[in-house]
Fold these 4 entries.
Entry 1:
Amino acid sequence: MAKSTRVAALQVEAEVGNIDANLGMCSDLAERAVREGAQWIVLPEFFSTGVANRPELAQNAPDADGAPTRLLRDLARTHGVHVGGSSLVRDTDGHVRNAFFLAGPDGDILGRHDKDMPTMWESSLYIGGGDPGRIRAGENMIGTAMCWELLRTQTAERLAGQVDLVLSGSGWWSIPAWPPRPLTRWLEQRNNARAVEAPSVFATYCGAPVVHAAHSGPLNCPMPLVGLAYGGHYQGGASVTAADGTVLALRRRDEGPGIAVADIELVRSAPRPLPDRFWLQKRGVLPALAWAYQNPYGRAQYARTRGHQTHRPAGALR
C-alpha cells in the first residue's frame, strides 16, 4: 500500500503588484501549512503580484532568481518540504514569463514550468512556454498546470499517466454584474462553478491527485480596448483532489485567505480517455469572447512593448 502524504494548497488575498506584502502573506500561510504537517505546499499562480490588466506587473517583474523564487527556496529549506508556485519573471533574454518553480527540501530548485498560453489580458504581460511541465522530485514525477491549462486537452495529454501528483494554481477572475444583470449573474454562477470544478475534472484526465492553490478577494483594473473598468473578484478556491476526482479539501474563495489540507497517495491511476477537442470543458460565452479578442490584442501589445521593459537585464539577447 502506498504511503500517504499530507499536502496543502494556499489561498491568498493578493494586493495587486505589492510584492513585499504578498510574499509576507504567502510565507505566513506556508508556515501554517507546515504546522499542520504538510510535506508538499503549493502557492497560487501569480503568488507574488496577483494578476490584472496592469502593465506595471510586467514592468516590475523580477529576475528568475529574484525574491519570489528565493521565498520558495527558503521555505523549502527551512522546513524540509517541497514548495512550488508561479510568478512573473523576466529572463535573461529580456522576455517575461509566468514561471512555476518547484523547490525541494534542501532548497534547490528541482525544475521549472512556463505556462503555455497566457489567458486573455495576461497576453500583454508575458509570453508562453513549450516545456512538458514535468519535474522529477526524487522517486516521483510531478506535473504542473496553471489556471486555464487545466481546461486544455494538450495539458492533460502531456501529463496523463506520466505523473504521480499535479501541482496547480490559478488567478481566475469573475464575470462582473454588467447589464443585463440576470444574464451576467447566471453566466457568473457557471463561471464560478467551472473554476471550482476544473482541478477535480482535470485529475480524472491525468490520473493523478491535484493540489490547487488560488486567490481570493476583489480585483479591479481597466478592460482592454473597450473603455470600461473591470470590477470583480477572484474565482474558485484552493483544493486538494484525489486522482479519481474526489475533492478531499476545499477552501472557497468567499472564505478568504487560508489553506486546504489533505492526505493523498502518490500513486498513478488510469486516466480518463481524452476528448478529441482543444478544450476539456466549455469555457462559457463571455470568457470565449474575451479569449478571442483579448489574446491577439495582448500579444500585439506585448510585441510592441516587450512586456513594458524599461531596462535590459545583464546578459540579455539583442
Entry 2:
Amino acid sequence: MAHHTLGDGVFNHFSTCAEQVTVAQTKLTAENALHEIDRVLDALLTEKRPGYIELPLSVVNKQIVGEIKPYKLKEPIADTSQLKALTEHLDRLLTSVKRPVLLAGFLMERFGLIPEVRALLEEHKLPNASLFMGKGVLDEKQKSYIGNYSGGASDPLLLQALDNADIVLSLGVRYTDNITASFSHLPDPKHLVDFQPYSVFVHGVEYKNIPLKESLKILTQLIARCKPGSFKIPATNSSAVKAINKHTEVPITQHTFWQKIQSFIEDGDLIIAEQGTSFFGSVTLQIGPRSSFIGQPLWGSIGYTLPATFGAMTAHPARRTLLFIGDGSALLTVQELSSLLRDGHAPIIFLINNNGYTVERAIHGEHQYYNDIPPVDWSLIPHAFGMINKPITYSVRNSKELDAALRHAEKPTVMQFIEVHLGMMDLPPQLKAVSDGIAAKNSIS
C-alpha cells in the first residue's frame, strides 16, 4: 500500500480516469517505449487534445529496446475521393450564393489557422461573426465583421443576417449551451456548411477524412471565383461595448465598468476572463487584431484563470495581460498570486467583488447560503503573498476611483490588483440571457 494510491494495491486507477479526458494513453515498458511514445504524440498533435503517458518507477532506469530516431509527426492526408466530392458539392452551392455569413470558432486557433481565415476575409469581405468560444480568431476591426454570435442573445440584426443567409459557413465551431444562450438560436441546418477538424458537413451530408487545413484551402479557392466585394454586408448594431470617459462618484455598475474597460484596453493585450460575470462582460469588448482572449465557457471550471494567467505570462512575460476574475472564483486558486509575484510578473488583475457567486444566483438560489462566500479584505491578500515584487492594490466603488486606478495601472511594472465593488445581482446582459435559459431548462421536470 503505497502513497498517492487508494491503499488497495491497485495502481491503474488514475490511468483509467485519464482515459476519459485524453485522446491516447499508454503505460511504458522498455520494449514498447519507442512505438508508444510516438503513437501518443501523433494522436495529441493531430487531434489537438491531451495525451497520457505513464512511466512506472520500475521502468525509469531501463534501457530502451530498439534504435532511437528523431520524432517526426506524420501529417494527416486527405481522402482524395472525399475531397473531390466535397469540392464539387461546395462549387455547386457557392455559384449562386448571394447572402453568405461566416462564423469562426476556437478550433481555428487550436489548429493554427487564424492567418488563413483572416486572409480569406480580408480578400473577399464575407460578412463574418465570432463566438464566445473563439473570440480573437477574427479581426473585429475589419469592415465585414458584424458582431458576436451568441444564440438568441445576439444583436437582433446579426440574427436577422443569419436567418436570411443562403449559406452559413461554420469554421471550427462547437455550438454549446453557454455560447448559444442555451440553444435559443442555431443556424438553419438547410443552409449550414460545418467545417470540423477532419470532416465537413454540407447540409447534413458528411465528407470524412479531410483535414481542416485542406477543406479551408478548397473553400478559399472556390470563393475566389466569386467577384471580390460582391457580398452585401448586412447593417448591424455592433454588440460591442461603447467606450466612455465620463466619471462620477455614483456607484459603478457592470455597464459602466465595461465601458471604462473598453477605453482602457489596447491592441495586443492578452485578456483572460473567468467564467462568471467577468466572462460575459468581457466577451462584449471589441478587441484589436493583435489581441488574444482566454476563457473557458464549455467546461467552466471556476478558479481556472488565475493559474492560467501565470502560465500565459510565463510564456509571454512582456505582454500586457489583463485578468478579470470574480471574488468567488479567486478564492479557489488565490495562492497563484504568489507564483506571479515570485517570478516578477506584472498582470493587471480586476477582482470583481459582488459578494459571492453571482452567476449561480442568477440561475438558482439568489439568496441561498451556498451562493455566499466569507467576507474577504481583498486589499490585504496580494500583500500577504508579495514579500518580494510588492504589488499595488486599489479598491474602487465608483467611476472616478476606477479612472484613477486605471491611470496608475496603465503601464505596469509590478502586479496591479484592482478590486471593483459591484452590485450582487448586477448582471451583464449576455449573462442574463444565458442564465435565464439555463434556469428555464433546469426547471423542466
Entry 3:
Amino acid sequence: MPKISNKGVRMPASPIRKLTPYADKAKQEGKKVYHLNIGQPDIETPQIMLDAIKNIDFKVWAYTPSEGFFSYRQKLAEYYNKRGYNISPDNIIVTNGGSEGFIIATQSCLDPGDEIIVPEPFYANYSGFACMSDAVIKPVLSSIDNGFALPPISEFEKLITDKTKAIFICSPNNPTGYLYSREELENIKILCLKYDLYLFADEAYSDFCYDGQSFVSPMHLSGIDDNVIVIDTLSKRYSACGARLGFLITKNKKVLATALKFAQARLSAGMVEQIAGEAAIDTPPSYFENVRKEYSERRKILVDSLNKMEGVFCPNPGGAFYVVARFPVDDAEKFCQWILEKFTYNNQTVMLAPASGFYSTPGKGRDEVRLAYVLNKKDLAEAMICLEKALQEYPGRTAKKEQVLMNS
C-alpha cells in the first residue's frame, strides 16, 4: 500500500472535533447533547445577508477575481477605515474563510524550518497551518492563574533565534477570551521591529469585547505597516460560519503580490458568499449591540456557574465567546470522553473541548477545558447543571487539596 506523506502523519487532529463520534453515539442513544465544544453561535445571521442570497439574479455562476470582487473590497476598506486601519481595496485579498487566509499568509511568508512564536494556549489550527508550511511553532506559556495575560515580552525574546520569522497573536483570544491591551501590543511591536519579524494578527473576534473594553489592532500601531498581516473573517461577526469567507489584510506590497499568486492558484472565493458578504457590511449597529449584550449575559451565566462548582476555577474573559476553566479531574480528555460515553443527567450530557489540544507544550492543559458560550441562556444554564453533576460523579475526580498541589 502506498505510504501517507510525512506531513500528513504530522498533521494534528482537531481537539475541537475529535470527540464527535462519542457525541454522535450519545445522540443515537437518545441523549440531548449540549455543545459547548465549538464556536458555532446560535445567534441568527443578519437578515440583510439572507435577503441578498434570496434576491440573487444571475445567469452564470462564474469565477470571481482571485483577490475578490472590487466592489466588495471597496466596502471592506471603508469598513476597516472606520476602525482606523487606513487601507485601500488593494490591501485586501478575499479568502475562503479565515483559515485559507492563514494558509496563504504562512505559505507566502514562511520557509521550511522557520519558527513562529505563539502565546499558548492557542487556536489549535495554528499547528495545522504551520505544518502545511513545514514551519515550527515555539510556544510562550500564559497561565490561567492570571487570566491568561500576555507573558512578559522577555519570555518572547528568549525564544528568538535566527530561524524566528513571525509572532502569531489572537485578540480577543481563542481559546481563552483574553483581550490584549495597547501596551501589550506596543511591546510586541518593539520586538517585531527589533528582529524584523512578521506579526500575524487573528481578529476573528474583534467585535466581541465586554465591560467597556476597547479592541486594539496592530493596524492601530505606528511604524509597523510592513510587518503586520491581519486575518479576519465574517464567520463570527455575522454568525455566518458556513459562508467560509475571510480576508487577508496587509500594507506590505511584497506580501500582497506573493499572496495573490497563491490566491490565483486556488482560483477564487465563492461568488454567492461575496454577494452576501458585501450586503452584510450594511448590517445596522443595533445588531452588534444586541449580540454583545447577549454574549455578555451568557458569559456571566457560564463564568459564575463554573466558579460556584467545587474545585473549578474560571477567569472572566474580556472578549470572544470562550473560556478556559480548570477542572478537578485527573485528565480533562478522559473526562470529556467519559461525560459523553458514560454519563447522563435527565437524559442530557455536555460536549466540551479538552484544553490540552490548545497547547503544544507536552503535559500542559491536562486539567483544563475550553467551553464556548454559544448556546441560548436557558440551554446554557441547563448545561451547567448537567456539568456540575458530572464533575461530582466522575470517577477520576481529584480532591481539592490534590488539585491545588497539582497546579502549584
Entry 4:
Amino acid sequence: MPRYDALRTRDGHRVVFAVAGAVDGIPVAVLHGGPGSGSNLAGALRLFDPARFRIVLIDQRGTCTSTPRGSVRRNRTDYLIDDLEAIRVRLGIERWGVLGGSWGAALALAYAGQHPHAVSGVVLRGLFLTSAREVSGLFVKSRRRAPRAWSRLCAAASCNRPSMLLSRCAALLQPGVDVARQRRVALAWRGYEEAVLARASLSSRSARLSMRESPRRSRTLIDKYRIQAHYLTHRCWLGEPRVLSFARRAAAAGVPLAAVHGSRDPVCPRDNLRRLARAVPAARIECVHGAGHLASDPALHRGVARALAALFDQPVHEGRAMRRAA
C-alpha cells in the first residue's frame, strides 16, 4: 500500500506525495500532466514492479490532494521544481529517475536540466513542449476534431473569437466569478477535451448527462481547469526553446533521456519527437504506431514500460526496445 506524506512550503502550499514499492528499490518520481490533473495512482503503479522500484507520485501545487486546491497563488513551474527537490531531499534519495507524461514531460525536462546531479534518467510520454503552436492547436485547430464540443465550450465562455478562447476560459475560472458560470465552463472544457481525445462513445446524450455532475466533482473540475488555464496562458513559464535547452543541458551532464509518443496523439504533435531528437541526438525515441495520448492506451503503456526497463531496470538492447523517429 502507498504511504502518503506532505511537503509544507513556506509560502502556504501543502504538496501531497505518495510513496509505494520497495524501500530499497530504484527510485522514480512520477509527474502528472494537465497541468492540474493530479496523480493517477493505480495507472502509474501498473508500470512498475513494486519489488524492484520505489515510486514517488507527486500531486503538484493546487492539484488533487494538494492544498489549497485550485490555488494559482505562487503556482509556477519554478515553484514546482523547488518542490521536487525538497521532496527528494526529504526522502533521502541521492538520485532518482523521473517519469513525466504530457505536461509532466515538459516539467521533467525542466527539472532534469536544472538539477541533473539529482536525476538518473528521464522517461517522457506524450511530450509537450509548451509552445504557442501546441496551445493554439488544442484550442483552435482541434475544433475540427470535435466541432460540437468546441461550440459548447465557446458558448459556455461566451466567446466568438477562437484565438481568445483560452484567455476567456481562464478569466471565467478565477475565484470570485459566479460558481454556476465556472461550472459551465469547466464541464464544457472537460467535454471538449474528452472529444478531442477521440472518445467516440461520447454521444450528445452522454454529454448532457455529464453536465449533471455532483457539486463536489464539479468543484474538482473547476480547480483542475483553473490551474490548466493559468499555466497554458503563460506557456507554462517555459516555451519550446527553453524546454529543449533543458533537455540538452541534462543530456550533456550524462542524464539519459527516453521519449515514447503515440503516432495518433491528438494533443501533442508527433513532430515533437523529431524536435527532441534534433536537440538531443542520443535520446532514445519510440513512436508507438496507432497509439494516442493517454497513458491508459495499452500500446503506449507497453512502450513506457519498455523505456523504464531500458533506463532503470534490466538491460534491454536498444535496437530491440526502441526505434528512432523517422
